[in-house]
Amino acid sequence: MSGTGREIVRQGNLVQSILPDQRVVLFETRNAVSPLVSALPSNRAELELHYEIALGGRARVADRATQVLEIKPLDGFRYGYKLWLDRETAMPLQSQLVDEQGGVVEQIMFTEIEVPADIPPGDLEPTIDTTGFAALRAAESQTLAAQVSWRAIELPGGFRLSVRTTSPMAGSDTPVDHLVYSDGLATVSVFIESLRTQSEVAEGFSNVGSTNAYTITLSGRKVTAIGEVPRETVRTIATSLVPE
Fold first, then answer.
1. Whose CA is closest to 159, among 143, 174, 180, 175?
2. I need a labelling partner for 70 at 20 to 30 A (CA). Which of 61, 76, 114, 174 fits?
3. In a domain, 132, yes or no
């Protein structure tokens, strides 16, 4: 399954989430349960502090039976999700990204889909080249906070540091610090450029589709926070960053 440039590959109980925009491969272990149960967030207790999660009614999408899963945001710092999950495979045949008022920010829908009885093993291999990506296991993310040289001192409720990496910028040998903050569903990437970088990125807000970004200069370094979240979320995280 892929979306927004991401790819998820599951082999047995091992789930490999490839995040090319963050240059990260996250490995998780999930027990074999029914498809609909496996589609529900595993950290539901924590998410329910910031989202309302409920199963809705049934509907047909692409001529297949689906179960509706609604994840509504409880504040303006994150988007919600409405998913029409195929009842046999739990594949989202239709998805909506929604704001706090229930307005649709983005929608994706299958109009036709074919699920073959047999799939060649080669088709289950990742299609994204992960050379140079950081490989993390879910349990490792909690140890990364102590390694970061910058930190956000004001975070929207539920957001925590999950990833810290340093890697060269595209087309340059100059490294950039990369932080990832997540509430378990929404993710914000923060890029802190080197003092040696002559960045041409304009300050302030920018966006592409449902993805918002905010750029500011802090301690002489260009900082950009970007994610599929409301504008206020990226602004809040970017402006609260301080060097340690």
1. 180
2. 114
3. no
